[in-house]
Amino acid sequence: MDDPVLLTGASGRVGQAILGGIADDYEWRLLDREPPTGDHPGEYVVADITDYDEVRAAMEGVGAVIHLAGDPRPEAPWSSVLENNIDGAKTVYEAAVDAGVEKFVFASSNHAVGAYETDERTPEMYRDHHELRLDGTELPRPTNLYGVSKATGEVLGRYYHDEHDLDVVCVRIGNLTEGHPPIDYERGQAMWLSYRDCAHLFDRCLRADYDYEIVYGISDNDRKYYSIDRAKDVLGYDPQDNSAHFEGEERVHGPEA
Ligand SMILES: NC(=O)C1=CN([C@@H]2O[C@H](COP(=O)(O)OP(=O)(O)OC[C@H]3O[C@@H](n4cnc5c(N)ncnc54)[C@H](O)[C@@H]3O)[C@@H](O)[C@H]2O)C=CC1
Ligand SMILES: O=C1O[C@H](COP(=O)(O)O)[C@@H](O)[C@H](O)[C@H]1O
């Protein structure tokens, strides 16, 4: 990817995890409505993703987009997810198509499919003996309006792929936690995504060839109810971390997760 990569929501947790791993590998154009707080690679654009003109200007000459900006709160109210996550995503997709961008990586969420975690299945489905694997072919089953907004972002991607030839990969991110998996939280351990696996996964999203994909973004945890086979097969994802290698806050194996 020789052309700049536009990273929306660059100042947030996922953006910082990505830049922490692959800052030197691309020419970045970072976009966030918050101004930068420290050093950053590339150009930094302070803009709101609901403003088409601002986003279109930031999109000029861009080869790929990683779209993270939005309200990440599972409890976010409809007014916020409608504006930031649905209208915002639509605006970024639209500007990408208008600017002739090739690849679009959309930050979806486990909350788009949270209702598969039924009372009958939990907590057993969070444990490593359980065989259920969601693989991205299942229909969305959101547990909250935030999840509805993420599922809508995936459907917007389907539309912009089918009608406007944009290559789109939607990453249903699990639980990104720095340094170690969530403690005393089986669900979070099953869907843990380490910082280095996060950076590697988004790197693969920028380098691989695909049409329209939905993949799960978790580390190679022994406990898992999301399949990472599609991410491995289509993107070449090769995760290094596994929540089973940690006990509490103690790291048992592997550096800098
Ligand atoms: N952190 C996690 O474990 C997960 C995150 N995600 C998704 O990944 C994305 C990033 O999440 P985080 O980094 O955790 O959130 P965050 O809140 O740390 O970062 C989001 C960034 O987007 C910016 N932003 C929000 N609304 C904006 C707008 N209208 N215009 C411009 N910038 C705006 C914020 O200023 C912030 O810097 C979100 O879309 C979230 O839904 C999905 C699943 C799990
Ligand atoms: O989509 C998201 O999911 C993660 C994990 O969900 P949780 O229910 O285990 O907290 C969440 O931490 C993050 O804020 C959200 O954007």
TrEMBL record:
Instruction: Give the keywords, sorted.
Output: Carbohydrate metabolism, Glucose metabolism, NAD, Oxidoreductase
Q: Where along the chain is NAD(+) bound? A: N84, S109, Y146, K150
The protein's matches in InterPro entries, at most eight in alphabetical order, are given as: Epimerase_deHydtase (IPR001509), Glc6PDH_archaea (IPR032884), NAD(P)-bd_dom_sf (IPR036291)
Q: Which Gene3D superfamilies match?
A: NAD(P)-binding Rossmann-like Domain
Protein EC: 1.1.1.388
Q: Which BP terms does GO give this entry?
A: glucose metabolic process; pentose-phosphate shunt, oxidative branch
Instruction: List the catalysed reactions.
Output: D-glucose 6-phosphate + NAD(+) = 6-phospho-D-glucono-1,5-lactone + NADH + H(+)
Name one molecular function that GO assigns to this entry: glucose-6-phosphate dehydrogenase activity
Record's Pfam families?
Epimerase
Give, as one word, the top-level EC class.
Answer: oxidoreductase
What are the positions of the active site? Y146 (proton acceptor)
- Pathway it belongs to? Carbohydrate degradation; pentose phosphate pathway
> Where does the NAD-dependent epimerase/dehydratase domain start and stop, copy by copy?
5-176
Superkingdom of the source species: Archaea
The record's function comment reads: Catalyzes the NAD-dependent oxidation of glucose 6-phosphate to 6-phosphogluconolactone.
- Cite the record's note on assembly: Homodimer.
Q: List, alphabetically, the PANTHER family matched.
A: 4-EPIMERASE, PUTATIVE (AFU_ORTHOLOGUE AFUA_7G00360)-RELATED, NUCLEOSIDE-DIPHOSPHATE-SUGAR EPIMERASE
Family named by the database record: Belongs to the NAD(P)-dependent epimerase/dehydratase family.
Which NCBIfam families does this chain map to?
G6PDh_Azf
Q: What is this protein called?
A: NAD-dependent glucose-6-phosphate dehydrogenase
Native source organism of the sequence:
Natronoarchaeum mannanilyticum
Which taxonomic lineage is given here?
Answer: Archaea, Methanobacteriati, Methanobacteriota, Stenosarchaea group, Halobacteria
